[in-house]
Amino acid sequence: MGTSECIQDVSFTDCESSHVGKLCLQLNCKSDCIHVLRSMVAVMTARAGMDELQSNRVAIAVDELFANIAAHAYHGKPGRVEFVTSIKSREHGKQELVFDFRDYAAVGWSGDIAEIVSHALDTKHLCPGGLGLRLICSVSDRCEHEVLDDGNQWRLIFTVSDTDRLKGGKKNE
Fold first, then answer.
1. 39-97: per-residue pLDDT in tens?
2. What whole-number distance in Å separates Cα of residue 110 and Cα of residue 14?
């Protein structure tokens, strides 16, 4: 599958004036399209100054969330996912790397993230259900979900430390 079959639309907001910017993408929800998301993760984690280990953790969470949307929201059938990633400044010079996913699935997910990840994991009797969400929550600083009238909105947030940003070589500040 070629990249053109994965991507529906792309925009690079504010990238000309800033090395941070924001990347927006509409994807067809097919597992073959994960390489496009991984490229965006690599670009944005590099812009945030994250090291390879941190970048891999972000990639794991993004991959798993995209796979969950494909499998559970769209049940393996084609569907549209809007993906936006940005680096947001917070108080005291802190930054967050944010990944927003918006699907248009017929049914919204009605689970409770906090409840799923708070239950003790029975490693002797593992069974499907909630393990991917546990993984996402264990590598991200925050995972948020909102049911919409016509789909779901997911947000993954990763805190970028000052030492990460210094390693990233911010030259224009």
1. 889 999 999 999 999 999 999 999 999 988 988 889 888 889 999 999 988 877 789 99
2. 35
Instruction: Determine the length of the chain.
Output: 173
Q: Reduced to 3 states, what is the DSSP secondary structure of residue 96? A: strand
For residues 7 and 142, give the distance between their C-alpha atoms in angstroms, rounded to a whole number.
Answer: 27
- For residue 125, give both structure tokens: 């009797």
Four-residue CA torsion sign, 144, 147, 153, 154:
positive
Short-list 153, 158, 171, 168, CA closest to 83: 153
Q: What is the layout of strands, in order, in the sheet containing 22-28?
A: 7-13, 22-28, 80-89, 95-103, 151-160, 142-148
| Nearest Cα residue to 97 out of 128, 71, 132, 62 | 62
Residue in the structure block whose two tokens are 């990840």: 117
DSSP character for 120? Answer: P
Identify which of 106, 97, 82, 119 has the alpha carbon closest to the alpha carbon of residue 41. Answer: 97
